[in-house]
Structure formats: structure tokens, C-alpha cells
Amino acid sequence: MAKTETGRVWIRRWLILIAVMVYAMILIGGMTRLTDSGLSITEWDPISGALPPIGHEAWLAEFDKYKQTAEFQQQNYNMTLGEFEYIYWWEWGHRLFGRLIGLVAIGGFIVFAARKWMGRNLSLRLLVLIALGGLQGAIGWWMVSSGIGETDRLDVAPYRLMTHFVLALIIIGYTAWLWLDLGRRSAVQVKPLLRKFAIILAILITVQMASGALVAGLDAGRTYTDWPLMNGEFVPSNYVETQLGVRSLFEGRAATQFNHRILAYIIWALAMASAWLSWRTAARSQFVWLGGLVTLQAVWGIGTLLSGAPLQLAIVHQALGVIVFVAAIRLMWISRTPTELRSPSS
Fold it and tell me: Which candidate among 113, 143, 174, 281 keeps its CA 20 to 30 Å from the CA of 224?
């Protein structure tokens, strides 16, 4: 894939840098949402928007634009200019960091191409990575616009938040996969059953992360703060809300939190089962490591819930979730094919 050993090493370093930056971007995005800062910038200007307001008049102009949103008119109508500046800086920083990731991605690709370090296949795969980053920026504005253009919505649409978050996971997972492909490590020989466990866990963890985005978008984590029951019930009586019907599965606070809990139990049980089944295999450490991370995430999630989902605990819960996701992608890569069928650099 890489034409030279030097190229392979530097491309892997570049991929690690992108993965770390995307991980940081996910956390910055989480803080932006948890501080209710996402709707503070009401326009999408990829070039001129890179500069913040300069001077008192410029700040007043931005504040006037924010005052036209439903979030300000119905929720933050008592906000001062200083408070607006606080949430503005969070959203501006989030967007600026996204631009920085784009520059690092495109700049690195140009350098690698100029040095002729990439074969055709690798070039196409890296271009896909860059294209996903561009798409993420567009989806980010599509998400924000849902909370600006509608008079009855005080936050972004949960579906769009979920889409934005899942694409970020796809980007970091794809980056990790490329990094592993360019490494010297081979896959580990595992039985077909364990290989299926790895795939199922990766899929379920991805779905669980998407479910968590819905919970976050609806602030459902602060609705029921008891465990293991929900307001004294195993299945909440308003699981299906009359006004929502089947949409309760995606828009109901009770349903989304309950689904998130149940899926967490399923993932934990499967992770423990796969760790036990792998105990006498060469892949034991990888399966046990994922099982340990899933357990830690579950315990932290329960603690976050019982504490009322404060900002600090919630952001760590999200951070751990991304680590669990990357570990699941790594496990799927390691167990995907028998060792003898793969070359070290493929």
C-alpha cells in the first residue's frame, strides 16, 4: 500500500494525529452541546467564519442574530452579552478545530502525494477519509440549522445530532482501520464463533453510541435518575408516549433511555461471554481488554445517571464510549481473517 518504509511510518503517524484530533473534536462537540452553545453562531461561513467578532460592535451584531432564534426568545431571553460570548467561544472553537483537522488531512495528503509515498489503492482510501471529513462539516451545519430555522425547537434535532455523531465515529473507526492495515501486526487466528462475536459487538456498540446521542439530544439522561428501575418501574409506563406513538422509540425520553440501558446490558453480557470463550486462545487479551472497557463504561454510566448526569461525568462517559468503540473496531480487525491469509503490510 505504501511505496516506501519511510512513507508507511509517516502516514501512520499522520493517521494517529488525525484520530487524536477527531477524538478531541468529539469531546469538544460534547462540551459544546452540554453547555448549550451549539446555536450561538447562526450562519455557516467556511472562510470568513474562521475569524471571531472583533470589537464591541461586532459582538453586538452577532448577539442580535442569536436573539432571532427560538432558543434565545423562549429560553435565554435574560442572557447578557458576556454570557453570549461564553457560548459563542465554545461553538467557534468547535468549528475552528474542525477546520484545523481539514488542513492537517489535506496538507498531509498533498505531502505524501508529492513524495510519491502512496500507491493508487492507498491514495483512494485516504481521499475517502478526507471526503468523510468534508461531509462531516456539511452535516454539522445541517444539524445546527435544525435549531435555528424552526420556531418550535430550542435545540438541534436529535436525529441530526445522532447522524453528526455517528459520522464522527465512522471517521475515527476508519482512520484506526487504515492505521492497522499499514502496521506490521497480523490478524490472530480465532474460531469462527469468536470472529462473529467481534463483528456483533462492533455493530452493537456502534448502535449503542447512536442511541446515546439520542439520549443526549433529548436530555433523557436527566429524566430518570434511579437504577436499576426507572421511577420505580422496570419498563416505564410512558415508554410509548401518546402524542408520539412509534416515534417514542427515537423521540421519547423514557423509551430512548430504557433502550440505551437494555442495549448496555446486552453488550456487557456478550462482551463477558466472548472474553470467557477466548480464554484459551491467542486473542484472549484483546477480548478481555474489550470486556474490561465495556464494564468500566457501564459502571461509569450508572454513576453518571445516579448523579443526574452532570457535565463532567457526562463528558467522561462519552469519552470512554469512543474508546470502547475504537477497541471494538480493533478487535474486529485483529480477528477478521486467519493469520496465514494476511500479509503483514496488507
Answer: 143
Ramachandran angles phi, psi of 43, nearest 5°: -130, 155
| DSSP 8-state symbol, 2 | B
Cβ 136 vs Cβ 45: under 8 Å: no
Q: How big is the CA angle at 28 (ends 24 and 29), to the nearest 5 degrees? A: 115
Instruction: Using alpha carbons, select from 182, 179, 98, 162 the residue that is nearest to residue 132.
Output: 98
What is the DSSP secondary structure assignment for residue 115, as one 8-state letter? T
d(CA 121, CA 142): 31
23/111 Cα distance (integer angstroms): 23
Please state, in angstroms and as integers, the Cα–Cα distance from residue 2 to each residue in 123, 126, 175, 247, 333, following that order.
9, 12, 15, 48, 19
Q: How many CB atoms lie within 10 A of CB 193?
A: 11
- What's the average pLDDT block by block, 10 residues per block, for the chain (346 residues)? 82 96 92 83 79 90 88 86 91 92 95 91 95 92 77 73 93 95 79 92 96 87 89 90 85 92 96 92 89 96 91 90 96 74 39
Report H helices in the chain.
Answer: 5-34, 56-66, 70-74, 81-114, 120-148, 158-181, 192-217, 248-251, 253-277, 284-306, 311-334
Which grid coordinates belong to 218? 433529548
* Contact criterion met (CB below 8 Å) for 335 and 195: yes
Rounded Cα–Cα distance for residues 183 and 20 (Å) = 17
User: d(Cα 270, Cα 206) in Å, to the nearest integer?
Assistant: 14
How far apart (Å, rounded) are the C-alpha atoms in residues 55 and 41? Answer: 17
Collapsing DSSP to helix, strand or coil, 155 comes out as coil
CB atoms within 10 A of CB 186: 17
Contact between 320 and 293 under an 8 Å Cβ cutoff? The reply is yes
Q: CA 176 to CA 85: how far, in whole Å?
A: 36
